[in-house]
Amino acid sequence: MPRFPGRTADVAANLTSPVLGRPLCANGTPWILYLFEECVENVWEYWSVVIGLISMFCFLLSTLPQVYEAYRNGKVEEAMSFGFLLFLFSGDLSSLIGCVLTSQLPIQIVTVVFYIFTDLLLISQFLYYKIKNNSCKKRPTLKWLCFLWCGASTVALLILPKFITDNNTSANTQSASNSVEISGYACGYLASIFYLSSRFPQLYKNFKRQSTEGTSYMLFALAMMGNGTYGLSIIVVLPALAGSKQTFILKHLAWLIGSLGVLLLDFFVTAQFIIYRKNRSDKTSKKMNVPEVEPLLCEEEELSTF
Fold this sequence. Notes:
Elements: H1 11-14, H2 30-36, H3 43-62, H4 64-73, H5 76-79, H6 82-101, H7 106-134, H8 140-170, H9 177-209, H10 217-237, H11 245-289, H12 294-305
């Protein structure tokens, strides 16, 4: 699941020669040029950027429903697989390293840092409720430790994008650019492997419990929308490419494998939600029918005693 669109490799090809340190883009879209430093001069490239932004926002919102579900349910350790959270965090961390090594745009670095923050929030919730539910005594210090941890990580992640972008621009030398870029794309493939691996622990957890209770389907639904729109943003721009389409696909292949592979696995997760929701409704209907019989049995037992 590529949590950010890797578009920076094509930015230089879309810009004309700089004058006084500023790119020339006479017929480009102003807001895209301002935000992404990318010259978009046709409808294909424009819709590619718009669909890519939709994909980005889907991923930004995907973890928030699960945070609320964990807060409401309070039994996140029973519903969520820690392997799922760990692989998700590892994938986002690899994506961040890939962003830095391939000199991605600042907005992409900020976005992937936000993903890491939401991952840490989910992991913190998981550990908090696991310790709380397994301990017999109430521990008020545990809540304060979680608040301090979340506050410290928030401050660190707010400072991190600025620190990375400053160091990235100052340390960008031409001699080591090729090896660094190859390392960045290797991190992209590693992130795709982590994203693909993240679904298997959760699929096994749901199968073992025969239930999806405690997990929010919106987490996976928004991820599916994000992966689908990401792939679409790559396909849409192909007719407008002036260069080699094969080279363009190869540059995005790592993220495409991750997005389409996770999209396929999320269909299996969706099937689990449908099947186990039906099982849950059958169980609740059986429970609702039991109290109607029990009082009659009790009355018969009382009459027999007399």
